[in-house]
Amino acid sequence: DSMIALARHESRLLRNLPFPYALSVAAFLLGIVVWRRNPSGAGMPGALAGGLPRRLPVLLLLFVVAYAVSLLPFVSTSRLRLPVMPVLFVFGAIAAAEIDRLYQRDGLPRAGLWLGALLVLWVGLSLNVAPSAIPPGQRLVEQGLTHARAGDWVSAEQAFAEAIKVQPQNVAAWYQLGNVQLRQGRFDEAARSFDQAVALVPDYAPAQLGQGKVLAQKRQFDEAADLFTAVLEANPSLAEGWLLLGAARQAQGRLQESGWSYQKAIHLAPEIPEAHVGLGFVFLAQKQWGEAEAAFMRALELQPGMPEATDGLRRLNTVRARAPR
Fold first, then answer.
1. pTM for this predicted structure
2. For a Cys-Cys bond, which of 59, 241, 254, 320 suits 249, CB 3.0-4.6 Å?
3. Other CB atoms within 10 Å distance of the CB of residue 267
4. pLDDT tens readout for residues 149-169
5. Residue 32 CB burial class (10 angstroms; 0-12, 13-18, ≥19)
């Protein structure tokens, strides 16, 4: 789904955002270590040589504030876990005080331990952005899609319904909920879900096609064909639309138009086995047996063992056996 792809892209951007800050703190800590190895301040400006230890807490806390401010926009949009912020401030403050105290006592090993721990925390916080970058509703949609691919319609429906509760304007969740309901034969509920998706985004073609699928399942083939045609006028490169129009025309008995629609779908997306099967049945009805066999075989190449293609070949062989020689 294009919306989910966009969310993943956004997630990658957010994931990379804090890394420049993590690199900055790494350079800052490296500078501290280098300075500690040269406690006399040789080669350093006098003001800096005498004042760096006392400035460490201030510099460190300024860094903490800058880091926190950089993440506030994502906190305000619920795209970053809130517990990150207090952890960042508390640990930063404690680390600053401890580092300063240990420097004054010349405790390099313990100071180095705190510095290393702080660096690890910062890198961890950078990674912590990633799982929360995708809004919760989108994550639930992805979970639902995973269940749907496994054929677990109940779990898929629960995930999509939960996504809608979390994010009522999530068009993809309404659309996928309609698909699951359609697969379960609950046509009226599916129609309401598709209608809701279209109400949110009127030109959302997948949901419009979903409305047509419901009409076709109710055997309202004329209305379904009209809807598919309207969608294809706005989206002529939509292979699924041509596939569905071909099936609707076939159900209407308009075989020539059905064949054209299937061929258009195959031209746009040759890897769709359903289009080859549909075209094969059109050829079978037109007694073009060689073309029908080629279409069914092509479908089986794309999806071995496909029941519809196997059934088509069986029917073809039966018709051939009964045909006068």
1. 0.61
2. 254
3. 12
4. 999 999 999 999 999 998 899
5. buried
